[in-house]
Amino acid sequence: MAGKIPATVVTGFLGAGKTTLIRHMLEHAGGRRIALIINEFGDLGVDGGILRGCGIENCAEDDVMELSNGCICCTVAEDFVPTLEKLLARDVPPDHIVIETSGLALPQPLVRAFNWPEIRTQVTVDGVVTVVDGPAVAAGQFAADVAAVDAQRSADDMLDHDTPLSELFEDQMACADMVVVNKADLLGDGPAEALAQELRKASRIGVQVLKARMGAVDPAVLLGLGVGAEADMDVRGEVHHHHHDDDHPHDHEHGHDEFESFVVRLPALQGSEGFVSAITQVIAEQGILRLKGFAAVEGKPMRLVLQAVGPRVDAHFDRPFLAGEARETRLVVIGLAGLDRVAIAQALEAAVGHSAAA
Questions:
Q1: Tens of pLDDT, residues 216-262
Q2: To which H or E segment does residue 180 belong?
Q3: CA 245: distance to chain centroid?
Q4: Distance of alpha carbon 136 from alpha carbon 205, whole angstroms
Q5: Domains and CATH numbers, the chain
Q6: In sequence order, what are the residues at sequence separation of 6 or more whose Cβ sits closer than 8 angstroms to the Cβ of residue 74?
Q7: Considering the entire predicted model, what is its pTM?
């Protein structure tokens, strides 16, 4: 691996905290030149926009590149490899490349892409970091003992016996060199450690499992694993075999078929607290898995970032609006296929009317 630029793949389910972890890494990069490739699911580049708006010295505009198709494995030749080549062709190449996958993506096809002739002599996969939502996993949504969960589901005819979300979780875990149990503070010390121990037992020998709050993991721990993951794909293969030969990247089935996303554009909010309260109810009533985006609030010069997974909604102001930037609210809605887009858009529009409420 001598002379190769290391690349870290950050994967994990929707809302686990991948972007938060990367932002913390950039804030504590210690002068290291880090380039980011963000693979979004949806038409609005929220994660890339958050990182560009962070105001961090190590996070320049041209250091963040986005692939907005939502499935990096389907566009290796057309999109991902040219993006890497553009980074490598810089007069001063990055010291490290960090790739944030979509929350719906499998990491294995991406890692295999580093064996492509165009890049294999220049870049190596330093390691795969899987970020998990501690409270969600502890609640049994993506349990480490999948066999036990499947047995429970099989015994109940009212439950879905083949949940694609659990399959995605298993495959992300199978590819990991490091697992970050994020939001551990929401579990408490005892339950968080019990979950970490459970995930250690379910992981390959040598996989590190760490607990974190708000993605706060020292870059010295995240970067420099030196694994060379592209060379040992046999030990990190897909559990559910969603993908086939790399020469036929579109001839496969994967978790994206089960999801859909769309963008809702709304006017500026009268206030943030009332809107957050209102959209929490919309999320619960409409079965939305993830909602994220940006909002303008009347009388506020700063842009409001909104991120929701399940019933948890985070809202914070990240940066001033730029000259000429639209003062509007733009939200990406992500859920299982079959979302009632009209009803969701109408409910979110009504939530704007409630935004003045404290």
A1: 998 888 898 889 999 988 888 766 555 444 444 444 444 444 567 78
A2: strand 178-182
A3: 25
A4: 24
A5: 5-253 (3.40.50.300), 257-353 (3.30.1220.10)
A6: 249, 250
A7: 0.65
